[in-house]
Specification:
Elements: E1 4-9, H1 17-30, E2 34-38, H2 43-47, E3 50-53, H3 80-92, E4 95-102, H4 104-117, E5 121-125, H5 141-161, E6 165-170, H6 177-186, E7 190-192, H7 200-212, E8 218-223, H8 229-240, E9 244-248, H9 260-278, E10 284-289, E11 292-297, H10 298-303, H11 310-318
Parallel strand pairs: 1-2, 1-4, 4-5, 5-10, 6-8, 6-9, 7-8
Antiparallel strand pairs: 2-3, 10-11
Helix pairs in contact: 1-9, 3-4, 5-6, 6-11, 7-8
The protein binds adenosine-5'-diphosphate and 6-O-phosphono-beta-D-fructofuranose.
Adenosine-5'-diphosphate (ADP) is lined by residues 10-12, 41-42, 73-74, 77-78, 102-106, 108-109, 112, 127.
């Protein structure tokens, strides 16, 4: 029976996941494998939602957000009996390897599937948060930042019209990468990220100082992992006397047409994942370091720490008045 390579998307979806699925499918077929698309993350292995993918099945998806394989969280995957059941399904499909597109949690599932079920897994970093430690870049990050920036530029118009302070909460789970970059790019007067504790009074003092030099409207970007953005908005209004309004961007950051950067990175990573399986590698996470596609051992990847960009944070703060 012809060997197969499986591919699934897991955890929070991200723009560019479809580009990765397309690259995995086409690279694998080019190398003589069948490709099995598994739907709704690991659930698809447990529920049998597995369909062969042809080169045509992944036509016209590179420009689409979301994931044609759907995604989901699979609570059963923390129990050994279900991991064994998933492994049996992979073996019944004559799977040479499985490409898992997701975040850290999905990689933990892949590591268990390999350790308990003997399935060779390759992880691709698919999350808008850019919070995966072994890579400078995760699929979806650039698109999410550009979406958030477009929204903040619109919010700036109304903040200016009303002489208001607009507090904008962005996604990122427990990371501040999206917040830091869009704060810099939007000219926000303050950026609140979980990596850098900050007293709201300090932010208010900076706003008051700018207000004294005729600055009449303000943008404050808050990463969702920093704290309660509604309370922060109220505190800013109380400390400054400036009308303040909160906008929580939410899931709009998860959708939309992927940017060039996400389409290209996803395609490169998907190709690399298939090459790794074809060369007999296992339990690797594909990433990007200094612009180059790399791969690291999955356990090492999960143990790595990615330093926050203190320099960018410092510059962002020092060039706003
Ligand atoms: P992400 O991959 O974006 O971090 P989650 O943390 O929700 O998303 O994980 C996605 C899925 O990966 C979970 O629904 C579960 O099926 C699996 N998973 C997460 N953590 C583990 C774990 N520690 N062991 C086994 N499977 C896990
Ligand atoms: O991990 C991606 C992400 O969008 C986070 O930034 C956010 O906190 C989380 O997913 C939201 O999860 P859900 O889509 O399950 O509400």
């Amino acid at each position: 029976m012809q060997k197969a390579i499986g591919v699934l998307t897991s955890g929070g979806d991200a723009p560019g996941m479809n580009a990765a699925v397309r690259a995995v499918t086409r690279a694998a077929i080019r190398k003589g494998y069948r490709v099995i698309g598994i739907q709704r993350g690991y659930n698809g292995l447990l529920n049998g939602e597995c369909e062969e993918l042809s080169v045509r099945d992944v036509s016209d998806i590179i420009q689409r957000g979301g994931t044609i394989l759907y995604t989901a969280r699979c609570k059963e995957f923390k129990e050994e009996e279900y991991i064994k059941k998933a492994a049996d399904k992979c073996k019944s499909l004559n799977m040479e390897g499985l490409v898992v597109i997701g975040g850290d949690g999905s990689f933990r599932g892949a590591a268990d599937l390999s350790r308990i079920g003997g399935i060779r897994c390759i992880g691709l970093p698919g999350t808008i948060d850019n919070d995966i430690q072994c890579t400078d870049y995760t699929i979806g990050y650039d698109t999410a930042m550009n979406t958030a920036l477009q929204m903040i530029d619109k919010i700036r118009d109304t903040a200016q019209s009303h002489d208001r302070c607009s507090v904008v909460e962005v996604m990122g789970r427990n990371a501040g990468w999206i917040a830091l970059n869009v704060a810099m790019a939007s000219g926000a007067i303050a950026c609140l990220v979980p990596e850098k504790p900050c007293d709201i009074k300090t932010v208010a003092d900076k706003i008051n100082k700018a207000h004294e030099t005729a600055k009449e409207h303000f943008i404050v970007v808050v990463a969702e992992g920093f704290g309660d953005s509604a309370a922060i908005t109220k505190q800013i209004e109380e400390y400054t006397g400036i009308e303040s309004r909160l906008t929580v961007l939410g899931h709009v950051q998860r959708g939309g047409m992927p940017t060039v950067r996400d389409r290209v990175a996803a395609s490169q990573m998907g190709y690399h994942a298939v090459d790794l399986i074809d060369r007999g590698a296992t339990n690797r996470v594909v990433g990007m370091m200094e612009g180059k596609i790399i791969d690291v051992d999955i356990q090492e990847a999960l143990a790595m720490k990615k330093p926050f960009d203190d320099e960018l944070y410092r510059v962002c703060n020092e060039i706003t008045f």
